[in-house]
Amino acid sequence: MKILALCIGNPERLAGKSYKTGIFKHAVNGAVMIDAEGLVGDAICNRKHHGGVDQAVYIEGSLTLDWWSGELGRPYEAGTFGENMVISGLDNRDVSVGDRFISGDLVLEVSACRIPCATFAARMNDPKFAKRYTAAARPGIYCRVVAGGVAEAGTPVEYQPFPGKKVTMPELMETFGRRLSETDRARYLAAPIHYKLRAMLEAQR
């Protein structure tokens, strides 16, 4: 595996909307510093739902994006989904909470899946795109930064699977907002899930 693209965005206004968003991201040349809050210089406009230490870097796998290119009927340009990083040879469906991506000094740990929103649908110019994305069951990957560092397109990535019981990205998307069985809740809580999801699950006890 290697980093195929690193993408950052500036605050931009969506057509017909009163607010600005950082979802319009574009691949950049050269090295990018990544710290606990994500890619330095990347715009995060809605801090309530985006960004933060457990949602610092958003990854898409190249195999998933190749699939989307076929579904959309056009070449996929890095950053279209608002991702910060594209990793070669990666299928989002194979990724679980706690998996790690290591590139040089940089260590990213998977914490959550992407849940599509109205802003995403507006960016794609399709009011039904959130439902389409959910139905595809190939959600993007949010990571916390365990160790910061400098990243650059073309650099190798080591993939370390989580050693515990798996909570995959498709399963996280499917169960989002639902009450879990005691067995599944225990499995989720045994993984290093996003702190907001952890709080929701602990409140179900």
UniProtKB/TrEMBL annotation:
Residue ranges annotated for the MOSC domain, each copy included: 26-160
Residues in coiled coil: none
Stored Pfam families: MOSC
PROSITE patterns xrefs: MOSC
InterPro entries tied to this protein: Benzoxazolinone_Detox_Enz, MoCF_Sase_C, Pyrv_Knase-like_insert_dom_sf
Domain of life: Bacteria
Family annotation (PANTHER family): PROTEIN YIIM
Protein's recorded name: MOSC domain-containing protein
Lineage: Bacteria, Pseudomonadati, Pseudomonadota, Alphaproteobacteria, Hyphomicrobiales
